[in-house]
Amino acid sequence: MSSNHIFNYHKLFKLENGKKVRGLQIAYHTYGKLNADKSNVIWACHALTANADVLDWWKGLFGENSLFNPEEHFIICANVLGSHYGTTNPLSTNPVTGLPYYLSFPEFGIRDIVKAHQLLADDLGIRKLKVLIGGSLGGQQAMEWAVSNPDFTENLILIATNAFHSPWGIAFNESQRLAITTDRTFYAQSPNGGLKGLKAARSIALLSYRTYDAYVATQVESVNEKTDGFRASSYQNYQGEKLCKRFNAYSYWYLTKAMDSHNVGRGRKSVAEALQQIKADTLVIGIPNDLLFPLCEQEYLANHIPHAKFQKLLSAYGHDGFLIETDELTNIIGNFLKENAKNKIVKLHKTA
Questions:
Q1: Enclosing domain of residue 53
Q2: Per residue in 4-17, pLDDT tens?
Q3: Is the sign of the CA dihedral 69, 46, 154, 24 positive or negative?
Q4: Which of its termini does the chain have fewer beta carbons within 10 Å around, N or C?
Q5: Are residues 37 and 149 in the same domain?
Q6: How many CB atoms lie under 10 A from the CB of residue 294?
Q7: Which residues are part of a known binding site for substrate?
Q8: Which residues neighbour 131 within 8 Å (Cβ) at sequence distance 6 or greater?
Q9: Which CATH number goes with the domain that contains 201?
């Protein structure tokens, strides 16, 4: 059973930077049924340009006959603040002016996304998550949520993510924003503004999501005579155009800024101390050839989150492997959850 929903927050939504959003709306999907004691909730946090339909973009891990299936679990995925898949974003109408926000939309961060989703969880009467899972920007959300509300999550799964966004990651995002701003239409107050720049930005991003080996495996030429019109060139153009058909430059701009702002240590004693606040049983998964979120970032998480487990996910695709290698993720995550459940039963017997 799958349903699309809209949650409307009727109070002013105050952002971390002190600015306010009026008329906050959050689009979200649910799948399956909530059991009597509300103990079967799986909450998936999506990445940069994804939407709330997790069964669509994380097939193989979520869906019928998958590890996270609607027959057994109540699955929730909510569209993030700033994304145009139904949640308040730069193309939304500003209730004060009656016009779309565009570049007057207030900047926001990962903590604001998490705060909005906590409001949604409260509205649904959910007091505990069985599993909170996310990769990349989704992992940043899940981590921040587990730090800011330590008692809310039983099992935390962090994939290809970090405790604070790195200078390397910020540099990639800034390069993409520079590409967007070379397109003068970005300042034209139009829903289609900045699309040529967005196409270039996506091409830059793709280089950080994939690897040398992945391009060799899929884009190598079959002949030696070519001097132009290469497969790799066509692929970059295709991927840029594909994103432009389903996304907008303004949401992309703001969401990359939100990713840059991610730092669990901000306003707390330190990054390490913040990670120590996490009470959930945590599994950290890293991809050895991930260029954007190198393995050292996941090793840092596993070393500082109390009793965290760490696993490597092997993939030829680099960062994008977390969306592609669903069979291996099923094995890794499934074994982790089974082991946790077994350990809890043993503890109960010991205390009985």
A1: 2-166+263-351
A2: 999 999 999 999 99
A3: negative
A4: C
A5: yes
A6: 19
A7: 202, 320
A8: 41, 42, 43, 68, 153, 154, 155, 156, 157, 337
A9: 1.10.1740.110
CB 313, CB 286: distance < 8 Å: yes
Tokens at 174, concatenated: 């800034």
Active-site amino acid positions: 136, 290, 319
Check: CB of residue 321 under 8 Å from CB of residue 309. Answer: no
Please identify every stretch of the chain with a pLDDT value under 70, giving residue numbers as ranges.
1-2, 347-349, 351-352
The number of domains in the chain is: 2
Binding-site positions: 202, 320
- Tell me which amino acid residue 144 is: E
Nearest to 79 by CA among 112, 108, 45: 45
- Given a contact cutoff of 8 angstroms between Cβ atoms, the answer to whether 1 and 70 are in contact is yes
142-199 pLDDT per residue, tens = 999 999 999 999 999 999 999 999 999 999 999 999 999 999 999 999 999 999 999 9
Instruction: Please state the pTM of the whole predicted model.
Output: 0.96
| Same domain for 122 and 9 | yes
